[in-house]
Amino acid sequence: MHIWDSYILGFKAHLQLEKSLSKNSVEAYLHDVAKVTQFLEIQDISLGPDKLELQHFKDFLRWISELGMTPRTQSRVISGLKAFYRYLLLENIITRDPTEMLESPKLGMRLPVTLNVTEIDQLISKIDLSTPEGKRNKAILETLYGCGLRVSELVNLKISNLFFEDGFIKVTGKGNKERLVPVGSIAQGEISFYLSDIRPHIQVKKGHEDILFLNRRGAGLTRVMIFTIIKRLVILAGIKKKISPHTFRHSFATHLVEGGADLRAVQEMLGHESITTTEIYTHLDRDFLRSTIIQFHPRG
To answer: What is the CATH number of the domain that holds 42?
Structure first.
């Protein structure tokens, strides 16, 4: 956002010259401020830092929390913003600090449960790959985690909506809204193997010809079935967290955001309609979304 540019440049010089911070520390502070400017762009709010109120920052915090950012990272972002506003006060650019009353989330605060990469690997390692269902289940889990899908989006995934040449799948989300989601090479590989080696041996029920994942009777899977598959694997892996298919979606978002991915790209991939309108995404081209997955997702 152009109105912020001169303030951010001044802040950068202040951190380098006055505070003598390392290059990495300076970058971290600037990233924190950039997250707010991304949020303002998405919300179509054209205000400089001198015009923002406490409520803007509260809305921003709710937004990054919904995107899956952990309380620890949220706290770090808040301290970065507070440092920026202390600088603005020091320079007499503002007369009052709207971030003064902004509270960091309690680190014990309940947020969506997520799995780390090791736990996801543990779960997948417990799949019995000697059975056709096992090979299908591996493709399912890699798709859930690699694309951040809702369970309803997964069970309704169509073969005709796989665009592997372009590296995307088309997903039908809430309110029948369609979106393109980048699909990483690991998920692609597992789906391709399932399509070529497992699915052809199933007698497909009428009306389910285009549904990607089928049960042994040739019909689409239910949401409950996906829950059951995951529950069994959680027990086998000895993981004590309360896991559901949605956990993979939260993990997908968290691993991208924590890795430094652009928040708008993560939002676009999740199809988060409630947070913002979709017009802003016209500026995000598909190559950008693909490169976000490749660069920041552990399965990229």
So the answer is: 1.10.150.130
- The 168-172 sheet, strands edge to edge: 162-163, 168-172, 178-182
Residue-level pLDDT at 284 = 45
Give the chain's end-to-end CA distance (angstroms, integer). Answer: 29
Residue 163 CB neighbour total at 10 angstroms? 12
Whole-prediction pTM: 0.63
* Domain match, 61 and 160 both: no
Q: What is the pLDDT of residue 275?
A: 42
Q: Is 280 exposed, middle or buried (0-12, 13-18, 19+ CB in 10 A)?
A: middle
The residues annotated with a catalytic role in the active site are 150, 174, 246, 249, 272, 281
Q: Which range of residues forms the domain containing residue 267?
A: 117-296
Task: State which residues of the chain have pLDDT below 50.
Answer: 109, 274-284
Do residues 93 and 7 touch, judged by C-beta distance below 8 A? yes
124 and 213 housed in the same domain: yes
d(CA 112, CA 26): 30
pLDDT at 161: 96
Report the number of distinct structural domains present in the chain: 2
- Residue 206: its pLDDT value, please? 95
CA atoms within 13 A on the CB side of 173: 18
Determine, yes or no, domain membership for 104: no
Amino acid 109: pLDDT: 43
In a domain, 140, yes or no: yes
Residues 135 and 276 in one domain: yes
Per-residue model confidence (pLDDT) at position 282:
31
Beta strands in the chain (DSSP E): 162-163, 168-172, 178-182
Distance CA 279, CA 246 (A): 26
Token digits of residue 46: 């054209």
